[in-house]
Amino acid sequence: xxxxxxxxxxxxLITVTSFSQLRDIPxxxxxxxxxxxxxxxxxxxxxxxxxxNVKFTLEGEKMNAEYSNKGIWKHTEKEWTYDKLxxxxxDGFKKSKYSDREIKDVVVLYYPADITQYRIKTEKNTVEKxxxxxxxxxxxxxDSITL
Length: 147
Prior knowledge:
Elements: H1 2-19, H2 27-36, E1 41-47, E2 51-58, E3 61-68, E4 73-80, H3 87-95, E5 102-111, E6 115-123, E7 129-134, E8 140-145
Antiparallel strand pairs: 1-2, 2-3, 3-4, 4-5, 5-6, 6-7, 7-8
């Protein structure tokens, strides 16, 4: 019985570990990431079969790039702060109907075709949480509910 108590948790640990990465990261993803971010450090790949998320550090900034499993870059997120936002974006937030909400998180989003957006996570209470997406000119492009 004692051997069984040791064996079962060990077997569970091995099983969970083996399923954490179901396949090798597609080579094309690694190649495209290396070409796009040649000076990235602390690179960590996470494959969820439809997308590959690459967490990394670039010039001291924590970032996350998302690629399709075919190696096509979808977007990159960079951790940011409200204080670093362009004045136009801060002004856009202050003029929005969400200005009374608490700011929980700010991210800069980079998309193909040289598109930049700023995502501000806001919270009115523990239930009412929203992502607000602004362009660099401070225009609110869209909002979405978040958990």
